[in-house]
Amino acid sequence: MNRIELDRSDDLSGLISTYRPGFSLDARFYSSDAVYQRDLDVVFCRNWIYAGHISQLPKPGCFFLMEPGEESIIVVRDGARSVRAFANVCRHRGCRICTAEAGEVKAFVCPYHAWAYELNGRLRSKRAMPKDFDRSKYGLKPVRCEIFHGLVFINLDDGAPGLIDAIDEMNSSFEPYQLENTRVACRETYTVDANWKLAVENFMECYHCAPAHAEYSRCHTLKSPKDNEALRPAMLEEAGRLGYSTTAIDRSLPTDTGLVQYYYARNALYEPFVTGSKDGSAVAPLLGRVKEYGGGVADIQIGPVSFGILYPDHAVLYRFVPRGVQCTDMDIIWLVNQDAEQGKDYDLDELTWMWRVTSEADKKIILYNQKGINSRYYEPGPLSEMEAFTSGFIRWYLAQIE
Amino acid sequence: MNRIELDRSDDLSGLISTYRPGFSLDARFYSSDAVYQRDLDVVFCRNWIYAGHISQLPKPGCFFLMEPGEESIIVVRDGARSVRAFANVCRHRGCRICTAEAGEVKAFVCPYHAWAYELNGRLRSKRAMPKDFDRSKYGLKPVRCEIFHGLVFINLDDGAPGLIDAIDEMNSSFEPYQLENTRVACRETYTVDANWKLAVENFMECYHCAPAHAEYSRCHTLKSPKDNEALRPAMLEEAGRLGYSTTAIDRSLPTDTGLVQYYYARNALYEPFVTGSKDGSAVAPLLGRVKEYGGGVADIQIGPVSFGILYPDHAVLYRFVPRGVQCTDMDIIWLVNQDAEQGKDYDLDELTWMWRVTSEADKKIILYNQKGINSRYYEPGPLSEMEAFTSGFIRWYLAQIE
Amino acid sequence: MNRIELDRSDDLSGLISTYRPGFSLDARFYSSDAVYQRDLDVVFCRNWIYAGHISQLPKPGCFFLMEPGEESIIVVRDGARSVRAFANVCRHRGCRICTAEAGEVKAFVCPYHAWAYELNGRLRSKRAMPKDFDRSKYGLKPVRCEIFHGLVFINLDDGAPGLIDAIDEMNSSFEPYQLENTRVACRETYTVDANWKLAVENFMECYHCAPAHAEYSRCHTLKSPKDNEALRPAMLEEAGRLGYSTTAIDRSLPTDTGLVQYYYARNALYEPFVTGSKDGSAVAPLLGRVKEYGGGVADIQIGPVSFGILYPDHAVLYRFVPRGVQCTDMDIIWLVNQDAEQGKDYDLDELTWMWRVTSEADKKIILYNQKGINSRYYEPGPLSEMEAFTSGFIRWYLAQIE
Q: What is the CATH number of the domain that holds A105?
């Protein structure tokens, strides 16, 4: 029976102990409410989670929301041009303050009783409150927020170590792309009726690329370890010449779960592909300090649920947002040079084609995966050699929640 | 964690003990299945609940349904012209008998196996039943029912004290309006995905009127305690002259939870408003014994979830019907003189405009309130001086369920 | 309170002990998650369940799915033309393999990572698997499967006794119809938001036929025990003359729960009906060895949730598929002679009319039944003399789950 609930923490230990290295997880990890609550508490509330891109906050008062589980976090640029994050919960009776996914405001005014907060979270009004009401105690609850090369990360855990220092060695990997000088050309959400871990596990392996992603596989050598190895030396040599870091970084394993997970590797593209496009040709102006096409692409990860593919002319960033035990949003943004003009410098359909078709296909197979796992005939199966990162994610995950 | 369930009654006591007077409630009161079941058992099954208006039952055999939670109660006028209520559950295998929200029948015939009941609930057929079947034991289960000035109330508790006697002092408040001589001009249901208590708490305070209800606030001085106070003496003098009761009644507090909750107060309207309309002008013929406009409006409550606004020319009655832990119907009826003709004596859009726009706005903010409360960042916040009735409702509610 | 959950197996015993013979069941049997899980475990995983008809598998590689609860079972004709059944769960990471309800394949290829299985379930590929991977251990999990007169049955219990031997005495009942030489002319699914038992209980009695099924009742004497008795002798004499078995078989009671449930009886039709049609006239060529119209119709059951009506010129087969505690699919197929051509030999609307109108009506009343049972006013009520089979089903069911 897959659907048995976990009532006590020792049940969780027992469940974790069922894990057999090299195999997929027990079904209850993908169907139990108790495990899901634990996932939210630990994975999403104690880690640095990528929330969005700095270009989504061009001016003071601009904000966007990040909403894992039943949370709603406001990320905003304040009057001093700092980026801050707050819980989207009025301190009066708990109403959501920002009700749109993104927008621009002069102050945060609760739509219910008009409690108004400065962009820095300070409560400024106290209409009809008792005389002893101390408004300094009722500011918006702050959420930690750090920015790395234009990517905004939040952390709901006040005691967690900082992000930027922890991932210092990633700087050289990002530097050529200057993602801080890009802007969001497109944003799409793919909602899949499956547990968030199935979506992450899917993203972390390319064993399924050849069968499920013909479009991706014509372009990316990740689909074939043999091809990937064969083309690697020439790709790395070219990458070095073009100024990319050629040192792979892999901090995705649970050897030290106190550390932020992060990852950087370059992978070759098949000829004649110079970027992730339909026909292989360029789709946008070169990013940042990138001088010419070549040197493969960068596959990156920062935090447990944030992934990216950095092409020479655009970047694709992925965040997985849990919405329920078996419901997950896959949010994707496409970044281009901040000066690039749609229609002139790039065509939106061409730019986004590769990851739209790929995400549509993933949405289907992840759902089929969840449905099969819900069967009493499911049992954990053996992973292939091409699923090493999925296996690593599972080990990291189990270390987190135990 | 807000979503932890309550497994035992001592958990409920513990939860109740978290209450801090002057603050809003803990999130679990709005999200726990166990609390919701308790609410249904106590609040909705032991109190007098307003179900509808006598004009909805013009003839013998006319009925309407009231459906709190998973219940379905038939309110019907029987052959002796008495109003009665029954559980809408066939005594054979439990099928719903009345499947439309309202209608007119000669007898209650179950659509499944045609068990037929008189309008007084008596089973009259016994097709194919064993010889020892005693049909006198299988009448429809009666539900208590009382009528006050045309308003029909039901009570699922056979042991509760009667309604009419308990609210005797409310007679003079209702008398001028003669609601028993009105009829339903319009009925609307607004479904809001929030716990029923959030909808009631919303209705019981006007702190949110100015921010959220511009239309209401142009008309009703309740939005401003200062204005309300300033205009009160002149309004009361006029009200007295026009024959309205000028004695406010407030039995909404939990000092004696054995008593029915009820409330009556008059509140001034801003000039030039003579009723709750878009431009302030009259929208229907004067009600009952009302001779002229003026004297403000009556705000009334009978029972925990029934509220009304009595204008000189129409009345608006509100009932809150729980449909799930986080789903509530707000059902509204607009009453006009029974002789008033639509199109001639009143325009339906004009008549209903004020409370349609107000309810649409409430539907949104109550939902935002629920969403914010579902966040782990929510904590009970301090109520304002304008939320005294909401605070009183909370205290009454806690006394009920403990 | 109907909604109290059952946390322990002794709660189930307690619930079973509430049963009063001759009455309907306690509400919790239709609303408890725990009871529903028990139903799936016992009723649907230990009995022979009718899944479909052999004509749905005309060639090797043709398959269809049967999906009770969260299961998905593939029924397929393999390369040796045998019919087999497998769990629709990839042995790798659990993905559904067949994603369409029916189809034709050369092999089973998982859409996720392309693990490929022979039609006999054997895993044939091992792309990128470790050297010690033994693919012989990772074939599709088999499900037992037997065929009776063209009807395909599955059983998820490896230890259950075989079907064909157990129902040997049913052969003569089926023989004249030669259902193995028919094909599916139409397939419809009616989804009803009610517990599966309410749907089965509905099917097993004709007390509701007269009130709820005017169309059926004009044709079938089952609606009237008196008429049924009166017309029986002549019908049986004619049936015998035409070569039908005239011996009724009733193995539907729980006297021995180890036995498969099955049932056969002939019932007269009213004049001038010769089949289940709108006007009583023939709707398709005579089935199998049937030589002429007459001799009534056969009502049959094999297994707990599979029923059929065998007319001289077509057959209607019913399966009930649980989809949730209060959600059930009623799947119907209409069988005609395998050589009959649509448009020439039969009109699809005429052929299916009777059981479409009947099923639409049942869908409504079963839903009303569930809604009424969800009320706290529901209590088990007395069954009529015309509900003997429903009563028998209840007793069989309680013996199963205890």
A: 2.102.10.10
